Automatic annotation (TrEMBL):
GO terms for molecular function: phosphatase activity. Pfam families: SpoIIE. This is Serine phosphatase RsbU (Regulator of sigma subunit). SUPFAM superfamilies: PP2C-like. Residues 130-380 form the PPM-type phosphatase domain.
Length: 401
């Protein structure tokens, strides 16, 4: 344990004076302190297909397949994996999967030590990556279009988790997106999540996506409720981009009692998954697409649903279900739900469920997607059943059966 403490102390002391491209050498330099020959950082590429080594200049290492290596298994299962003379530990920023750290040692390295060092590496990587382009360049396996650059700059981390809620997302094609974008925030007991699908593609679509996220965050931070938020976004769209629109689904989840409030603005219906099975589609649309509100005098309608502990809500854009293979077959909702249900029943981590979903969409399509394919999975997992002591009923909410 003392060895791990000294290794972490040295990393924390030296990192503030190191540039992002110096971090690999700094991490490798503490290997002798924990009786290791070497330590290498591997980062997941944007497509989450390969783990790419982040090494110091002049040193090379081979990328590892996420689907067919022990390193990849550590990434997908979030569990450390051992091989001859090596140990791979998941590299996590909170619950977001960044990659893995590979430890090489002649002796059997203690996992506790490796986990402590890896946790420190994750924090250093998070703190230093914004000061240079080393990490961004490494994670790109092909050129990224400007529209995608704009969208990725807007997005929060793909995965967020607290003790009782999880939100995780995927976005493809990762190098050429433009119209799809999502956002989330946890404020007190309320988790807010929004998924937008703007019309068009390329720079114009990414400009609409930028407006959607900016206006959504502004409304949320101003303290507007869900209906007022939808009205605000609709007005921004119609005033700044008359004639253009975005479909959207916006939700608020009260993590105390599982109350889910939803506005569906012309978007595919969210799917409620309970006990590993999709049991219903949440009603929608409850509002016109954002930017088209002037066609109706009706205000956005908020649908309310009571979740059960362990329930999941799946949001997706039509680029997922409308992906067509060479035979002209749509990916379809049935295939989508079957894949998600099988992954959840296999008890895969939520981020891995979503990664496999988007890989299946890409495999089905067989070539570059014609539309963005984006999905968000939300899970409510309270430590105890809030209905057990009548807490939810005390605020006048009745559970659904």
């Amino acid at each position: 344990m003392a060895q791990a403490d000294e290794a972490v102390r040295r990393l924390l002391t030296q990192a503030p004076l190191a540039g992002p491209d110096e971090l690999p050498a700094l991490v490798a330099g503490i290997a002798p302190l924990i009786d290791a020959r070497d330590i290498t950082i591997f980062l997941a590429d944007y497509a989450q297909v390969s783990l790419v080594p982040l090494t110091e200049p002049g040193r090379s290492a081979e990328a590892a397949s996420i689907d067919s290596t022990l390193a990849g298994r550590a990434f997908t299962t979030l569990e450390a994996q051992r091989g001859p003379g090596r140990l791979w530990v998941p590299l996590l920023d909170g619950c977001e999967r960044l990659g893995v750290v590979q430890f090489e040692s002649d002796a059997e390295l203690e996992e506790t030590t490796a986990h402590e060092v890896t946790a420190c590496v994750a924090q250093l990587l998070k703190n230093r990556r914004a000061y240079g382009d080393t990490v961004e360049r490494l994670r790109r396996r092909e050129p990224m279009q400007v529209a995608a650059e704009i969208v990725w700059g807007l997005l929060p981390p793909l995965t967020f988790a607290a003790s009782d809620v999880v939100a995780t997302a995927v976005l493809e094609p990762c190098y050429d997106v433009g119209g799809d974008v999502f956002d989330y925030a946890l404020n007190g007991d309320v988790l807010s999540v929004a998924l937008f699908d703007t019309c068009g593609h390329g720079i114009k679509a990414s400009a609409l996506a930028s407006l959607a996220v900016g206006a959504y965050r502004n409304a949320r931070r101003t303290g507007l409720d869900l209906a007022a938020t939808a009205v605000s976004l609709d007005r921004w769209f119609s005033s700044e981009h008359r004639g253009l629109f975005a479909t959207a689904i916006m939700i608020e989840l009260d993590r105390r009692d599982g109350t889910l409030r939803t506005i569906n603005a012309g978007h595919p219906g969210a799917q409620l998954v309970r006990d590993g099975k999709a049991i219903k589609e949440l009603p929608g649309p409850t509002a016109l697409p954002l930017g088209l509100g002037y066609f109706s005098a009706e205000p956005p309608r908020v649908h309310e649903e009571m979740l059960h502990p362990g329930d999941r809500v799946l949001l997706y854009t039509d680029g997922v279900t409308d992906a067509v293979n060479l035979a002209g077959e749509r990916f379809g909702l049935e295939r989508l739900l079957d894949l998600v249900q099988r992954a959840l029943n296999d008890e895969l981590p939520a981020p891995e469920t979503m990664r496999r979903l988007v890989q299946s969409v890409l495999d089905h399509h067989g070539e570059g997607l014609q539309d963005d394919a984006t999905a968000v999975l939300i899970e409510w997992r309270p430590a105890r059943d809030p209905w057990a002591n009548g807490r939810a009923r005390s605020v006048g909410v009745e559970p659904t059966v």
